[in-house]
Amino acid sequence: MKEHNKTLGEFIIENQKSFQYSSGELSRIINAIRLAAKVVNYKVNKAGLVDIVGAAGEQNIQGEDQQKLDVYANEIFIQTLINREIVCGIASEENDDFITVRGSDNSHTNKYVVLMDPLDGSSNIDVNVSVGTIFSVYRRITPVGTPVALEDFLQPGVNQVAAGYVIYGTSTMLVYTTGHGVNGFTLNPAIGTFYLSHPNMMFPKEGIIYSINEGNYVHFPQGVKDYIKYCQLEEGDRPYTSRYIGSLVSDFHRNMIKGGIYLYPTSSKAPKGKLRLLYECNPMAFIAEQAGGKASDGFGRILEIRPTELHERVPFFCGSYAMVEKAEDFMRNAKK
Ligand code: P6P
């Protein structure tokens, strides 16, 4: 009899011995994400039917109009993580400051911090385009028993113990890594179970898809302009194909399966880039490297950047290894 596809729960149990810390801790983190993803998925799929679409009338720290689903997703992920008694702190794109989380015994004995973008690409909700949740997990570095501190969140990406994303698309998937490869699980909505559908996901070393908002072309650094012209050149396997959904999780996920590069460079409109280091670039970079890809700020490894602020932005070049290397070459040569 064909063995059924492994469920996420079975996968976690099978692999928790490879988690560098206590086995149960990983399960509680991923189980919290799993439950929250199912709840948010239900609302995202109903967005056109219930009064949950459209701006919530507030602005987040980024000065972006908060969509009601942003606010809803943020609350669901925060509450689910708190209830699992595993985190001592949470940082979110939607919250100006980090949240200190006490255990049910009012202590500060939980050992993990989670940073997240609860609903990335939310401006696409009203037009029925895929959106995603991105999360990043660290072990705290301040003493257990004391309140979580900003330095627990400002760790370089190389310190992540887990990272992943949920993509609410034509199907809903949870894709994550704990440093031992990348695995993708697809939700069967009829029974509310995630099944292992994409084991050991790997970026093709090369690809023919480049993802960038070319509307900003005139504002890009010369190296990026040169790379775009290289992609459009009639030579070898070029011109490449331009695919840009405007939803990082969707562009990243497609590029990881088909091969490609995503670029969000600096521009005169976004002098440090647009994407946030801690809860967008670092988790996606961890996944990319675990899948044999590469993630750079145009000159150096994303995961080695030492953060200084919770919501800091960095330029982001991420995807198939050879394509990111090529883009870095153009950035370095333009500097000469
Ligand atoms: P632009 C969504 O707001 C996001 O953070 C990413 O998901 C997406 O790739 C990017 O911004 C789109 O930004 O400036 O091209 O609309």
From TrEMBL:
Single GO BP term: fructose metabolic process
CDD domains, alphabetized: FBPase
Note describing how the cofactor binds: Binds 2 magnesium ions per subunit.
Chief location: cytoplasm
Binding site for substrate: 120-123, 213, 244, 262-264, 274
Gene Ontology MF, one: fructose 1,6-bisphosphate 1-phosphatase activity
GO cellular component terms given for this protein: cytosol
Stated name of the protein: Fructose-1,6-bisphosphatase class 1
Upper lineage: Bacteria, Pseudomonadati, Bacteroidota, Flavobacteriia, Flavobacteriales
The gene coding this protein: fbp
